[in-house]
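Why this split exists: single-chain examples teach little about how molecules sit against one another. For that reason, every record in the complexes split bundles all components of an assembly together and asks for one structure covering all of them. Below is a record exactly as it appears in the raw files.
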Amino acid sequence: MLITYLDYFGTAIFAASGVLVAGQRRMDPFGALVLATCTAIGGGTIRDMALGDTPVFWVHQVAYLWIILLASFATIVALWRFNQTRWWLLPVADAIGMATFMAIGAIKAQHLDVPLSVCILMGILTACGGGMLRDVLANRVPLVLRQEIYATACLAGGLVWVLAVNVAAPVWVSTLACVLTALLIRLVAIRHHLSLPKLMYRR
Amino acid sequence: MLITYLDYFGTAIFAASGVLVAGQRRMDPFGALVLATCTAIGGGTIRDMALGDTPVFWVHQVAYLWIILLASFATIVALWRFNQTRWWLLPVADAIGMATFMAIGAIKAQHLDVPLSVCILMGILTACGGGMLRDVLANRVPLVLRQEIYATACLAGGLVWVLAVNVAAPVWVSTLACVLTALLIRLVAIRHHLSLPKLMYRR
Amino acid sequence: MLITYLDYFGTAIFAASGVLVAGQRRMDPFGALVLATCTAIGGGTIRDMALGDTPVFWVHQVAYLWIILLASFATIVALWRFNQTRWWLLPVADAIGMATFMAIGAIKAQHLDVPLSVCILMGILTACGGGMLRDVLANRVPLVLRQEIYATACLAGGLVWVLAVNVAAPVWVSTLACVLTALLIRLVAIRHHLSLPKLMYRR
């Protein structure tokens, strides 16, 4: 199914983003592999633990681990081989991964018969959890929390998904609507450097 | 029951403290909401995962999520509306939340037939876990670990609770004893800026 | 059994390393105790949660908590009593703990009928997870990711273990082979300050 391939694609992309951050922090290759693994499966792992759907998904689907291994290796080679000017593709690929993970998290929670508001939360956790873990391990405030429209795009995708589920749309329609909404908002935000206004303290 | 209302109150207060930290770090409103959620339900979530009592508590009690949403929104408005001189109330409210969460964590663990020493640990985890997660996400050493009598107050509450359980006191007595002990020690520590002596290295 | 004693020994050593980091960050004794607990049982706790083997191991084996308490107390006293020149023993003891935890994590996962590649991952998680948690709470990039041959030594131990399991070696042989391989590589790395080359960005 398309969603499975998108899931694998998202896993590979998140692994690559882990390796990139590891490179910025001058880690060694195995450190990079550990960081890539945390980024790629961190969100889904916390989701499965919270839902009690254990062993978590990658324990019996070893494909994820091999994808992370391959993607990390490819990124390490690419880091050393290609000029940094090519890296503008990464945020776009990351947006695709994020939008897919949002839908996957929500659908998985729905299968376990969970209230729809919790499904949205599980989607956001799946989409943002890995990146948050990556940034915490790299000792910086998670990007998700800080500057760009990221969690917001997830939330919008989740709301559209709930709407589609409520009007009893077929699964592929609600999934597609969720993915496209989140993706579109995120891409527009990247392209135009949009962010929400910061919180203000009264002086 | 009183303990349920105190639990909701504690959740709201911890959410507010998450928003305050988000404001200090200049996050956007959705980042603040994510941080508020991690602070308010982080400790209890880890507790439930460790005890294997899954899905974790908020999956089927959506009230918690709405409380977090409301409390965060109210705090964002208050941040922008009120002068910072009013914020001295927050540590006091946080102490109430901490003391309540300590009792709730211990009681929940006891229901699952866990040794009393582990009950204390689960109480401390519930009371301190959310704040630790908040500070880690905001990229600073958790306050709990650093300076004030916080974990110590939890521990004292826990020991009093074990004592009360051992003499077969009614549930409301042991709960109240735990909450009041932890709260009192914490309030005294706040008022008089008490802290334990730091660890020393021999030179 | 020997492995149980090594496990207790590893727990005590990791607790001590938590207290040492707490001392560097000028935490108070209870903060140190919390950090020691996270370091000593953090990796195994995440492993048990991911495997769905809950309640996690220390809930019904309270011995671990007492060992942490004793080891932390002893380390606090030692910090204040002994000159820092004696501390070179700690990395060696930490290597023993790491190698033991690697084997224990892998064996535990194997008992739950998990693919061998996931067993290796669970071993690495058990051996490195606690130290990563410690460093994140102390607000620094985990040492494991950064500089020395640590995860690499775990991985080597894991590969030797898989080899031994595949040729149907007795449990004590595969365990010993895993522990000795990981320990040897780590000790050599400590002695000669070896590390893998850092990731490079093309300029």
